[in-house]
Amino acid sequence: xxxxxxxxxxxxxxxxxxxxxxxxxxxxxxxxxxxxxxxxxxxxxxxxxxxxxxxxxxxxxxxxxxxxxxxxxxxxxxxxxxxxxxxxxxxxxxxxxxxxxxxxxxxxxxxxxxxxxxxxxxxxxxxxxxxxxxxxxxxxxxxxxxxxxxxxxxxxxxxxxxxxxxxxxxxxxxxxxxxxxxxxxxxxxxxxxxxxxxxxxxxxxxxxxxxxxxxxxxxxxxxxxxxxxxxxxxxxxxxxxxxxxxxxxxxxxxxxxxxxxxxxxxxxxxxxxxxxxxxxxxxxxxxxxxxxxxxxxxxxxxxxxxxxxxxxxxxxxxxxxxxxxxxxxxxxxxxxxxxxxxxxxxxxxxxxxxxxxxxxxxxxxxxx
Amino acid sequence: xxxxxxxxxxxxxxxxxxxxxxxxxxxxxxxxxxxxxxxxxxxxxxxxxxxxxxxxxxxxxxxxxxxxxxxxxxxxxxxxxxxxxxxxxxxxxxxxxxxxxxxxxxxxxxxxxxxxxxxxxxxxxxxxxxxxxxxxxxxxxxxxxxxxxxxxxxxxxxxxxxxxxxxxxxxxxxxxxxxxxxxxxxxxxxxxxxxxxxxxxxxxxxxxxxxxxxxxxxxxxxxxxxxxxxxxxxxxxxxxxxxxxxxxxxxxxxxxxxxxxxxxxxxxxxxxxxxxxxxxxxxxxxxxxxxxxxxxxxxxxxxxxxxxxxxxxxxxxxxxxxxxxxxxxxxxxxxxxxxxxxxxxxxxxxxxxxxxxxxxxxxxxxxxxxxxxxxxxxxxxxxxxxxxxxxxxxxxxxxxxxxxxxxxxxxxxxxxxxxxxxxxxxxxxxxxxxxxxxxxxxxxxxxxxxxxxxxxxxxxxxxxxxxxxxxxxxxxxxxxxxxxxxxxxxxxxxxxxxxxxxxxxxxxxxxxxxxxxxxxxxxxxxxxxxxxxxxxxxxxxxxxxxxxxxxxxxxxxxxxxxxxx
Lengths: 368, 565
Hints:
The complex is a heterodimer of chains A (368) and B (565). Chain A is of the alpha+beta class. Chain A has helices at 48-56, 98-109, 113-126, 142-154, 172-189, 200-206, 224-229, 234-239; strands spanning 6-15, 22-32, 37-41, 63-68, 71-72, 83-86, 160-164, 192-197, 209-214, 217-222, 243-253, 257-262, 265-270, 281-286, 291-294, 301-310, 314-322, 325-332, 345-350, 356-358, 365-367.
């Protein structure tokens, strides 16, 4: 297996000149292994689509390289690159049938008639479009159109498959089922894929690797669980899942543990970051599900329940722990836990090894 | 999304030029288009200005001073404005009611109403004047019913019938773009239908209504055929400019009147374009809908339906009268049915008919291809002077035919640096005039079609391995073919029915069917005029049907709704 099947080296794209210059992608490096699905995730304008379009060849990089299978493709126009894209709005040719759409790239490549027919049919079976060959794109549902778009790209057997927010035009339920299908199909075919989305849930459930971007810069690269449990900064922590941010003062540092004070109470957290020293003022990420609600006691962080919302499978509490700070707490399986009414005094503890300490400190607060 | 970055537009001009140099064929084509537009659009209009500003061979504003100081010359200006304002106001009102009926009410037989309402657009405009004379003239069916038919009153009636369809088509688009849910929301919040209309529909539709008004105003002021027949002692600019030149051989004064005609129409045209560009907020609600209001109140239905039925009946009556008149032995004297008029018409007008068909068949494809090419480079290519090119190519749409006609006879009567041969008297001058006069609609359709094509569809093709040539042939071209054919339809219809500009450039050698009809009317040979009009309308309808069926065949699966509108 090639470790660096798709490689971006110091890739940069800026638009405009002088005062109006905007750098959409700023010296990013990324290596994608063969068969991996990597998601580019970030808010609007973070540069993820620009990056994808540079891989496809629709944007020319201002500087840097795109390498596929060890070869630079910088000089290749999009029609000569071994990539195929699944477009956000499907971009199906409205004057062709489903089969003609899927056959389009094969025809351009000059495959024989019989070979095209077989490939198209196999692809339609693979992707669950049997019986729709003669339909016009406008006669299909959004989900079906998306499949045709995927089939059209996949049939080319590209070295890298590119997805540009392919699910954003589907309704919520269909989005969930389609993304599962895409993941299964991608794993079955074993195709190297780059997937752009702004939906963090989509990124978490689909990817081998998630790349979090902001302002054209990669914030963090990692597996979904790494990113969730060890976000590298406040932006990543807040962007992926919900997070409470608590200020803390480090009291003692051991090889494996950090002891600190939060709201004057002793709390311990695993030590991931070797740069943290005694007396540092730090920010602690506490996910809502890692906080345990209990009776108040002198050595626990004190709080008052301000609100509670019942979701069936879980209960969400809002607890005020200081005049200017509330935290969100999720209790799974609420039937088997005591319910705390609004105004009740409670004591907070943290699940073992669940806290994550950030070195930066931009003031505490609550972000979800 | 992040693909749309501000400041991208500022990407350097030198870059565009370098790209263009890489495609020498395209560069060459663009230069040719520039040359043609300068010679056949800018140059003639410039010549009219120049002639109006020269007196005894010297630069002078004296023509204007004379025209403005004598009521004989200034009266036509005020008359044209008055006629334009009245026609536009009544026409817009009728057009709005019609559009409201078609888009919002549950009226029955909408398709038929729509067809009838658009009929005056595809027929030569002066046919309505002809019918008007047959109905209310001295030997008409309702002779004397409305008094003297020559003058302002007659012109208003005729032009309202001829041009409210323009307002109707424009306003259908405007009303479609207003989501009926807004109306429901207004009523849900407690407003009455009338109140909602005043506070929601009207404010949203206002830019569209004003722009429809301006369109009718332009058509009325620029109209030549109807006033030529009906103006009587109510002189209007277009006819007076024509008479100055063909009757008095006074080019300078004719040009001065032409400029007085040009200024308000071009002003109105750009005001209208500006309003349309600003009204975009109307469409943000998404897909155009045509949901009708099922339980509409009677006090809305009654006036709206009455106007529709009355207008449709009038149109049918007028055209029916032309058909009927064409079969009568001697109008008003002997009503025996006969084919004699068709025989006479054919004997006298055979040459005209053939010339019209030949010239239209040459003009139509040239206009279509050139219009589509210009639309393509405007929407998809970058090159210096693009805005100037777009402006020049759309200009003839705004300039009254009379002005264009005068410009052509001044510009091409003698050889010049730009055009080294004399064109006057040739068939070629008619062809180029029609090509450049008809092209703006083709360009507009083409631009609209190209803008509808999401660039990602073309990108998908390139992504799948096609180069830009293959992408144009396989993807872009098939998708713009309906717009291309609609451009052809328009060009053919206009070539067959145009009169105002054409009348200046026809000659003994090359003449056209519309000029022949006007000649019959001039000689009071109304029955022959009617017969020839019917033939003309028949040719146009057959051509429409043929082109539409081709379009349906080629454009299946695509949005062909834009074709006729």
